[in-house]
Amino acid sequence: MKKNAYFGLYIVIAILIVLPFVLPNSFYMDLVIRMAINAVIVLGLNLLIGFAGQISLGHAGFLGIGAYASAVLPTHFGWHPLLAMGAGAAVTGALAALVARPIFKLKGHYLAMATLGLGIIINIALRNEAQWTGGPDGMAVPAMGLFGFDLSSDKQWYWVVALLLSVSVWASLNLIDSPFGRALRALHGSEVASQVVGVDVVRYKVAIFVMSAVFASIMGSVTAHYVGFVSPNFADFFHSIELVTMVVIGGMASVYGSLVGAVLLTALPQALATFEGWETVVFGAILMLSMIFMPKGLVPTLAAKFGKGD
Amino acid sequence: MSMLEVKDLSIHFGGVKAVQNVTFSIDSGIVYSVIGPNGAGKTTLFNLITGVYKPTTGEIRLDGEAIGGKSPNELATRGVARTFQNLQICMNMAAIENVMVGAHLRLDRNLLKAALRFPALKRRDRELREEAAELMRFVGLEKYVETRADAMSYGALKRLEIARALAMKPRLIFLDEPAAGLNPKETIEVDHLVRKIAESGVTVVLVEHDMKMVMNLSDRILVLNYGKKLAEGTGEEIRNNPDVIAAYLGTHD
């Protein structure tokens, strides 16, 4: 870890401060907010995939739990949105821990399989429990009230999300360059070597999986309140894949790669809208080409090219 | 009382009896070598004692406590360190971070404190970096302190593993062929290094094919052949043991 790793954080913060003053209209404002939300999710997912080397194919399911907790609990039970968000995160964390513990006792990539199944189950549950969730049609989410005033305008949301993103980048950088983070990277690099120096690999894998799931749940809640509406599509398998793709394209085990991946893949569908009907094909082609020519992801590849470590 | 006692230790992989009824004990503070032809079960024995494999039968005691079947990370808490014959280096990390991770159990590993960058943690990490650099100098890797692990030579990585193991501040260290694949000059350096480690009070268990090094360093030697104990004794006794000579050189019948 280079000493200047935090330099990127200052750039991120500077960009976040300047952006709202240069964005031409609310369309771009909305796009940037969604990029930032995705970036936070991808940061958490990259800690799991890139740093710890464990793959989750069900992260959209965790997003869904958070989002629906924020929709259902305030609507049907009158809970405060923050309390609902906390409840969603707690349920997600408990569920992730419950699933992860037995799986990580096995050797191999069973987590990918298990989370794939878990994500699909969550999605089906959200579709079928129509009396609570509105079924396939989704449901409206009440506004988020923070300390007496409602978060409603894009501007307000922007600053909240920008703050969340900055803190997440900072926390991720801190975590990676700490005893906990070194243990995570070590178990990815050589599981047996990390074990013989005393790393309880099951515990660490569970911890980072739960943490990234809770990250996703909280950002699911944030998205739900921001958009004002949730539907089961938000929690479906394709969204999970999209998140994993952001990690891989941006660069595994790269904090700034997570941001780049999230920004690019959030913007890409908009940019490809002109291809009408072919956008999925073009999207797929871009992913394939970037994987062929930059298997390590954008940021690590470019960093290596310009002779700087990440 | 011996530090490590192994009694009737066996492991079977399907029909293959890789280690069979091996019994020996190691006193504190000595250099104990395990030798034998390729495939004799030396590394398997290491894997059994360090918890990588679980024994089929038999007993392993460390300071009287039964440790057979305990996981490697539990053994690490009891001061057992090891290196690997086939390198186990975290290539995704800097060389010095590989050493720092060796100190894992001596650090505050709290996730929240780490994420929030508690000053005490950062301070400890800075000290640790100094410690790790010192250890790298100790094993002769001073010029690699700022290097990525994947940019280092094979011989350097072998020593990096030793530095990582030493970062645990172990009482008992298992070195699995530390000189394998090294040139004569490097071998002599490793020889000196093992001696330095032993002199610092750490009990050393060594698997090595370089006989000069083994005879030079060992207080006692265990000879394995086909998973069984062939002989045990001082270097002198082993050198003159007819069974050992037969196993190594073959016999005329």
Structure description:
Chain A: The chain crosses the membrane at residues 6-23, 35-57, 77-98, 110-126, 157-176, 206-227, 247-268, 280-299. Chain A: Pfam families: BPD_transp_2. The complex is a heterodimer of chains A (310) and B (253). Chain A has 310 residues and is mainly alpha-helical. Chain A has a domain at 26-236. Helix content of chain A is 74%, strand content 3%. Chain A is built from 14 helices and four strands. In chain A, the strands form two sheets. A two-stranded antiparallel sheet of chain A has the order 1-4. In chain A, strands 2-3 form a two-stranded antiparallel ribbon. In chain A, strand 2 and strand 3 (149-151) form a beta hairpin. Chain A starts with 6 loop residues before the first helix and ends in a 5-residue tail after the last helix. Chain B is an alpha/beta fold. Chain B has two domains: 1-79 and 170-253, P-loop containing nucleotide triphosphate hydrolases (Rossmann fold), CATH 3.40.50; 91-165, no CATH class. Chain B has helices spanning 42-49, 72-76, 95-101, 111-115, 119-138, 154-167, 184-199, 211-217, 235-239, 242-249, and strands at 4-13, 16-26, 31-35, 57-62, 65-66, 80-82, 172-176, 203-207, 220-225, 228-233. The model of chain B has no long low-confidence stretch (mean pLDDT 94). Chain B contains ten helices and ten strands. In chain B, the strands form two sheets. In chain B, strands 6-7-8-3-9-10 form a six-stranded mixed beta sheet, with helices on both faces. In chain B, strands 2-1-4-5 form a four-stranded antiparallel beta sheet, with helices on one face. In chain B, helix 3 packs parallel to helix 6 and helix 5 (119-138) packs across helix 6 (154-167). The chains are: A mainly alpha (310), B alpha/beta (253).
Main pleated-sheet profile of chain B: 6 strands, mixed
Please tell me the CATH architecture of the largest domain in chain B by its name.
3-Layer(aba) Sandwich
Poorly predicted sequence stretches spanning 5 or more consecutive residues of chain B: none
Overall tally of structural domains of chain B: 2
Q: Please report which band the strand proportion of chain B falls in: under 5%, 5-15%, 15-25%, 25-35%, 35-45% or over 45%.
A: 15-25%
Read across the widest sheet of chain B, the strand sequence of neighbours is: 6-7-8-3-9-10
**Integer average pLDDT of chain A:** 92
Head-to-tail CA distance between termini of chain A: 7 Å
Which structural class do the helices and strands of chain B define?
A: alpha/beta
